[in-house]
Amino acid sequence: MNAHSVILLFQDNNGKKRIEQFQLLIAEKFGGRSTLQLPPHITLIKWQSLAPLSENHKSSLVVRNMLHDVTLEPPEISPNGNSIWHRVKNPDKLKSLSAELINTLLRSGIGNDNILQTTDYHLTLAYKDYSEKKVEAIFAFLKQSYPTSPTSLIATETAICGIDDRGTWSLIAEPITIAPKRQ
């Protein structure tokens, strides 16, 4: 079974650069690298399919002419205790975008029971590589050195990711950068 996800990517700005810097700092200070496999992003949907990703999927899920303002809440430990993330403040636009993407998958023959739409939109700072105790240490470090004000990002495009046999996520359908006019 092939596992994929559609992620939301961001325009370069101070907020994105700050997140990248802290993801790298956490990886260097606490030893994990999983968060660095992909650029800062928010996962919109995930799905599984027996068939490999088609060119039709790539063209219908990747190219987006959008410009969404995304505001992130201050970082927190995830409910399961194994990651640190920023929740999205007011995720209604992301819910609409996810619904569009799900409809695209359904029209292409991917079964509804193979699609997972997230309802907890977030951008991850640290995950997977750390025990709960290490997550608590990272969070204590962030409370001392990471800004607590909300972070503003501008979402400009989506990309498709896949996971390999080792559990490593990577971009498999590069985004096509679009410079839309702000509405």
Give a quick set of tags describing it:
Cyclic Phosphodiesterase, Chain: A; 9 strands; disordered C terminus; 30% helix; alpha+beta; single chain; 4 helices; 183 residues; 9-stranded antiparallel sheet
Task: Please describe what this structure looks like.
The protein is of the alpha+beta class and 183 residues long. It has one domain (2-173): Cyclic phosphodiesterase (Cyclic Phosphodiesterase, Chain: A, Alpha-Beta Complex), CATH 3.90.1140.10. It is built from 4 helices and 9 strands. It has helices spanning 14-30, 55-62, 92-107, 132-145; strands spanning 2-10, 42-49, 68-72, 76-77, 83-89, 115-117, 122-127, 151-163, 169-173. It is globular, with a radius of gyration of 16 Å. The N and C termini lie far apart (40 Å). Residues 176-183 have low confidence and may be disordered.
